[in-house]
Predict the structure.
Amino acid sequence: MANNKNRIALIGRIGSGKTTLFLRLTNEFITYGKTQQVSYSDHFIDTPGEFVELPCFRPQAINVTCDAGLIILINSSTDHQNSVPPNFVCTYNIPVIGVITKIDHKHCNLKRSLRYLTYAGVHPDKIHPVSALTGEGVSELKTVIQAYVAFDH
Ligand SMILES: Nc1nc2c(ncn2[C@@H]2O[C@H](COP(=O)(O)OP(=O)(O)O)[C@@H](O)[C@H]2O)c(=O)[nH]1
Ligand SMILES: [Mg+2]
Protein backbone atom coordinates (compact mmCIF):
# COMPACT_ATOMS: atom_id res chain seq x y z
CA MET A 1 0.00 0.00 0.00
CA ALA A 2 1.23 3.51 -0.82
CA ASN A 3 2.77 5.40 2.05
CA ASN A 4 1.57 8.98 2.17
CA LYS A 5 3.40 10.24 5.22
CA ASN A 6 5.72 12.28 3.01
CA ARG A 7 2.84 13.74 1.08
CA ILE A 8 0.90 16.94 1.71
CA ALA A 9 -2.85 16.70 1.24
CA LEU A 10 -4.70 19.69 -0.17
CA ILE A 11 -8.36 20.08 0.74
CA GLY A 12 -10.73 22.98 0.17
CA ARG A 13 -13.71 24.10 -1.87
CA ILE A 14 -14.03 23.91 -5.66
CA GLY A 15 -12.09 26.81 -7.15
CA SER A 16 -10.30 27.70 -3.91
CA GLY A 17 -6.93 27.39 -5.65
CA LYS A 18 -5.68 23.95 -4.55
CA THR A 19 -4.36 22.84 -7.93
CA THR A 20 -2.81 26.22 -8.74
CA LEU A 21 -1.00 26.29 -5.40
CA PHE A 22 0.18 22.72 -5.82
CA LEU A 23 1.57 23.56 -9.29
CA ARG A 24 3.19 26.73 -7.96
CA LEU A 25 4.79 24.88 -5.04
CA THR A 26 6.20 22.24 -7.37
CA ASN A 27 7.17 24.74 -10.08
CA GLU A 28 5.05 22.95 -12.62
CA PHE A 29 3.79 24.71 -15.68
CA ILE A 30 0.24 25.87 -14.90
CA THR A 31 -2.12 24.13 -17.34
CA TYR A 32 -5.01 22.31 -15.76
CA GLY A 33 -8.72 21.73 -15.76
CA LYS A 34 -11.14 20.98 -12.97
CA THR A 35 -9.75 18.29 -10.64
CA GLN A 36 -12.21 15.43 -11.06
CA GLN A 37 -10.43 12.81 -9.06
CA VAL A 38 -7.81 12.47 -6.38
CA SER A 39 -4.43 13.16 -7.93
CA TYR A 40 -1.17 12.01 -6.39
CA SER A 41 2.26 13.44 -7.11
CA ASP A 42 5.59 12.85 -5.36
CA HIS A 43 4.74 15.39 -2.67
CA PHE A 44 1.03 16.11 -2.88
CA ILE A 45 -2.44 14.65 -2.79
CA ASP A 46 -4.74 17.04 -4.66
CA THR A 47 -8.43 16.41 -3.99
CA PRO A 48 -11.59 17.53 -5.80
CA GLY A 49 -13.45 20.34 -3.99
CA GLU A 50 -16.55 18.16 -3.80
CA PHE A 51 -14.77 16.26 -1.04
CA VAL A 52 -15.34 19.08 1.41
CA GLU A 53 -18.35 20.74 -0.22
CA LEU A 54 -20.66 17.76 -0.39
CA PRO A 55 -21.36 16.11 2.96
CA CYS A 56 -21.69 12.68 1.32
CA PHE A 57 -18.06 12.89 0.12
CA ARG A 58 -16.52 14.06 3.40
CA PRO A 59 -15.71 10.56 4.66
CA GLN A 60 -13.90 10.07 1.35
CA ALA A 61 -11.90 13.26 1.94
CA ILE A 62 -10.80 11.98 5.32
CA ASN A 63 -10.13 8.50 3.98
CA VAL A 64 -7.69 9.48 1.24
CA THR A 65 -5.87 12.11 3.27
CA CYS A 66 -5.74 10.69 6.80
CA ASP A 67 -2.25 9.19 6.47
CA ALA A 68 -0.62 12.22 4.84
CA GLY A 69 2.25 14.00 6.61
CA LEU A 70 0.43 17.32 6.54
CA ILE A 71 -3.05 18.57 5.69
CA ILE A 72 -3.44 21.98 4.09
CA LEU A 73 -6.97 23.35 4.31
CA ILE A 74 -7.31 26.00 1.64
CA ASN A 75 -9.67 28.93 1.67
CA SER A 76 -9.92 31.44 -1.13
CA SER A 77 -9.89 35.02 0.14
CA THR A 78 -12.52 35.82 -2.51
CA ASP A 79 -14.96 33.17 -1.35
CA HIS A 80 -17.93 34.50 0.58
CA GLN A 81 -19.37 31.12 1.32
CA ASN A 82 -18.03 28.60 3.77
CA SER A 83 -18.82 24.93 3.44
CA VAL A 84 -16.37 23.35 5.85
CA PRO A 85 -18.13 22.24 9.04
CA PRO A 86 -17.03 23.51 12.45
CA ASN A 87 -13.85 21.84 13.72
CA PHE A 88 -13.68 19.61 10.63
CA VAL A 89 -9.89 19.40 10.77
CA CYS A 90 -9.94 18.20 14.37
CA THR A 91 -10.91 14.82 12.88
CA TYR A 92 -7.29 14.46 11.79
CA ASN A 93 -4.61 13.01 13.96
CA ILE A 94 -1.90 14.65 11.83
CA PRO A 95 -0.74 18.27 11.55
CA VAL A 96 -3.04 20.73 9.79
CA ILE A 97 -2.26 24.20 8.51
CA GLY A 98 -4.52 26.69 6.74
CA VAL A 99 -3.69 28.60 3.59
CA ILE A 100 -5.54 31.67 2.35
CA THR A 101 -5.21 31.92 -1.42
CA LYS A 102 -5.72 34.67 -4.04
CA ILE A 103 -4.44 37.49 -1.82
CA ASP A 104 -3.56 39.39 -5.01
CA HIS A 105 -7.26 39.54 -5.95
CA LYS A 106 -9.14 42.82 -5.70
CA HIS A 107 -11.93 41.10 -3.75
CA CYS A 108 -9.53 39.55 -1.23
CA ASN A 109 -10.96 39.52 2.31
CA LEU A 110 -8.37 38.17 4.72
CA LYS A 111 -10.48 38.61 7.84
CA ARG A 112 -13.29 36.49 6.44
CA SER A 113 -10.88 33.72 5.41
CA LEU A 114 -9.29 33.73 8.87
CA ARG A 115 -12.74 33.36 10.34
CA TYR A 116 -13.65 30.41 8.08
CA LEU A 117 -10.37 28.60 8.67
CA THR A 118 -10.47 29.02 12.44
CA TYR A 119 -14.12 27.92 12.40
CA ALA A 120 -12.93 24.76 10.61
CA GLY A 121 -10.52 24.16 13.50
CA VAL A 122 -7.22 25.54 12.16
CA HIS A 123 -5.14 27.35 14.77
CA PRO A 124 -4.85 31.08 13.90
CA ASP A 125 -1.03 30.90 14.16
CA LYS A 126 -1.04 28.22 11.47
CA ILE A 127 -2.74 30.21 8.75
CA HIS A 128 -0.64 31.47 5.85
CA PRO A 129 -1.75 33.93 3.15
CA VAL A 130 -0.42 33.38 -0.39
CA SER A 131 -0.95 34.26 -3.99
CA ALA A 132 -0.16 31.37 -6.29
CA LEU A 133 -0.33 33.79 -9.20
CA THR A 134 2.17 36.44 -8.04
CA GLY A 135 4.10 34.09 -5.77
CA GLU A 136 3.59 36.29 -2.67
CA GLY A 137 3.92 34.21 0.51
CA VAL A 138 4.87 31.05 -1.39
CA SER A 139 8.48 30.79 -0.22
CA GLU A 140 7.37 31.40 3.39
CA LEU A 141 4.80 28.64 2.96
CA LYS A 142 7.45 26.27 1.60
CA THR A 143 9.54 26.90 4.71
CA VAL A 144 6.54 26.09 6.91
CA ILE A 145 5.77 22.92 4.95
CA GLN A 146 9.36 21.77 5.25
CA ALA A 147 9.01 21.65 9.02
CA TYR A 148 6.48 18.85 8.54
CA VAL A 149 7.37 17.01 5.34
CA ALA A 150 10.65 16.59 3.47
CA PHE A 151 9.99 18.64 0.38
CA ASP A 152 12.99 19.01 -1.88
CA HIS A 153 11.84 21.22 -4.77
N1 LIG B 1 -6.10 35.89 -8.64
C1 LIG B 1 -5.78 34.64 -8.30
N2 LIG B 1 -6.44 33.60 -8.88
C2 LIG B 1 -6.09 32.35 -8.51
C3 LIG B 1 -5.08 32.08 -7.55
N3 LIG B 1 -5.00 30.74 -7.37
C4 LIG B 1 -5.93 30.20 -8.19
N4 LIG B 1 -6.58 31.15 -8.88
C5 LIG B 1 -7.64 30.96 -9.89
O1 LIG B 1 -8.76 30.32 -9.27
C6 LIG B 1 -9.35 29.40 -10.18
C7 LIG B 1 -9.48 28.04 -9.52
O2 LIG B 1 -8.19 27.51 -9.26
P1 LIG B 1 -7.90 25.95 -9.05
O3 LIG B 1 -6.48 25.83 -8.68
O4 LIG B 1 -8.39 25.15 -10.22
O5 LIG B 1 -8.84 25.61 -7.80
P2 LIG B 1 -9.18 24.18 -7.18
O6 LIG B 1 -10.55 23.80 -7.69
O7 LIG B 1 -9.19 24.41 -5.70
O8 LIG B 1 -8.11 23.21 -7.60
C8 LIG B 1 -8.47 29.40 -11.43
O9 LIG B 1 -9.09 30.22 -12.39
C9 LIG B 1 -7.16 30.00 -10.96
O10 LIG B 1 -6.48 30.68 -11.99
C10 LIG B 1 -4.38 33.21 -6.97
O11 LIG B 1 -3.48 33.10 -6.14
N5 LIG B 1 -4.79 34.44 -7.39
MG1 LIG C 1 -8.27 21.37 -8.55
